[in-house]
Prior knowledge:
Elements: H1 3-24, E1 28-30, E2 37-38, E3 43-46, E4 51-54, E5 59-60, E6 65-68, E7 73-76, E8 81-82, E9 87-90, E10 93-96, E11 101-102, E12 107-109, E13 111-116, E14 119-126, E15 129-131, E16 136-137, E17 142-143, E18 148-149, E19 154-155, E20 160-161, E21 171-173, E22 178-179
Parallel strand pairs: 1-4, 2-5, 3-6, 4-7, 5-8, 6-9, 7-10, 8-11, 9-12, 10-15, 11-16, 12-17, 15-18, 16-19, 17-20, 19-21
Antiparallel strand pairs: 13-14, 21-22
Amino acid sequence: MNKIAKALKWGASALRVAKMCVVAGNWFKIASDKPLYLGKGARVILDEGASLSIGAGVYLSPECFVQVTKGATLVLEDGVYMNEGCRVTAVQSALIGANTLFGPNVQIYDRDHEFDCRGVSSKLTYAPVSIGQHCCLCANAVVKRGSSIACRPLVSENPVVTCDLTESGALYAGAPARLV
């Protein structure tokens, strides 16, 4: 990418971030030593009373969607990279560790519908989600409520994480995700 195109890309991102800061007000904190990149079509929705903390050098690719509801907390530590189409929804709390990479269409949810023998209920259940530092979640990974992922694992394409992945540096795959 030539220097002019790069300057235009980051300039447009700066305008999108400035607009978001004006709309979000006090519920939004950005580390200041490296810029936040907010891709075209990326959306950040913060309800009143929500808390979003974004570390240095976070990159939200085009068409990413981040939502933090009233009373919830979302922390994106330094160097988090979200590829196109990623979605993070925090109704209670979610933490994405430093230098974590998301492939396209990764989905993170700290809530889910109750389910029993009668079927799916409209009632929601909540539990925090925690993703460690230096994680790599490949394309279409889904991380569900109450899950935590240790530092430095590789989570393969199309897994559904429903529990704690505790092995650092390991490979996880499948639905539900298991150690390979």
